């Protein structure tokens, strides 16, 4: 982890364009591609109000988040626009019937595939960080699969890194970030769990939610969405 507090000297400066990158929109839901650096929901301080939800609420005041991505993580989010949709989508996430897949660039040459099973809890003295705790932590499992480096965009292709597909079996806060760091392969650009050298290799956290599948909360039709981050040339198989 970088020396000093990860929030020291932090100033929230979210990207302004595009205002919303909308992948799908009807009267019940909106699916967006969240950029790195933008909060999913408004922060407690007034200067941290700008977020995916506050932007959507300019058009749909009843919109609410049914899941979140870390501010530094980019990728696909679905947002409920009505009470019925919010309730239904919330149940799908709680019942773990939603399929989520992520891609990342990590430090070093990670094994071809594996599983990380380390219980996590909030680091109460260093919020919002999480820590491994075998006594009080909650079960946290991540599956990973290394991708060929030909997937990596030219601007991000550096020596001694790996592209990986990540499958969160559980959905704890910062789970993918801390699990990768615990394997010795921290995600590039991670200001919370990577060394200073790994953190500074890229200007952004190279973690992206590239696939999301769920059932439409009203029609029941199964929807799936894909999104390619700038650090990859192409996406892996689901």
Automatic annotation (TrEMBL):
<dbReference type="InterPro" id="IPR006224">
    <property type="entry name" value="PsdUridine_synth_RluA-like_CS"/>
</dbReference>
<feature type="domain" description="Pseudouridine synthase RsuA/RluA-like">
    <location>
        <begin position="28"/>
        <end position="182"/>
    </location>
</feature>
<dbReference type="Pfam" id="PF00849">
    <property type="entry name" value="PseudoU_synth_2"/>
</dbReference>
<keyword id="KW-0413">Isomerase</keyword>
<dbReference type="GO" id="GO:0160142">
    <property type="term" value="F:23S rRNA pseudouridine(746) synthase activity"/>
</dbReference>
<comment type="similarity">
    <text>Belongs to the pseudouridine synthase RluA family.</text>
</comment>
<dbReference type="InterPro" id="IPR050188">
    <property type="entry name" value="RluA_PseudoU_synthase"/>
</dbReference>
<protein>
    <recommendedName>
        <fullName>Dual-specificity RNA pseudouridine synthase RluA</fullName>
        <ecNumber>5.4.99.28</ecNumber>
        <ecNumber>5.4.99.29</ecNumber>
    </recommendedName>
</protein>
<dbReference type="InterPro" id="IPR006145">
    <property type="entry name" value="PsdUridine_synth_RsuA/RluA"/>
</dbReference>
<dbReference type="GO" id="GO:0000455">
    <property type="term" value="P:enzyme-directed rRNA pseudouridine synthesis"/>
</dbReference>
<dbReference type="GO" id="GO:0008033">
    <property type="term" value="P:tRNA processing"/>
</dbReference>
<dbReference type="GO" id="GO:0160151">
    <property type="term" value="F:tRNA pseudouridine(32) synthase activity"/>
</dbReference>
<dbReference type="InterPro" id="IPR020103">
    <property type="entry name" value="PsdUridine_synth_cat_dom_sf"/>
</dbReference>
<keyword id="KW-0698">rRNA processing</keyword>
<keyword id="KW-0819">tRNA processing</keyword>
<comment type="function">
    <text>Dual specificity enzyme that catalyzes the synthesis of pseudouridine from uracil-746 in 23S ribosomal RNA and from uracil-32 in the anticodon stem and loop of transfer RNAs.</text>
</comment>
<dbReference type="GO" id="GO:0003723">
    <property type="term" value="F:RNA binding"/>
</dbReference>
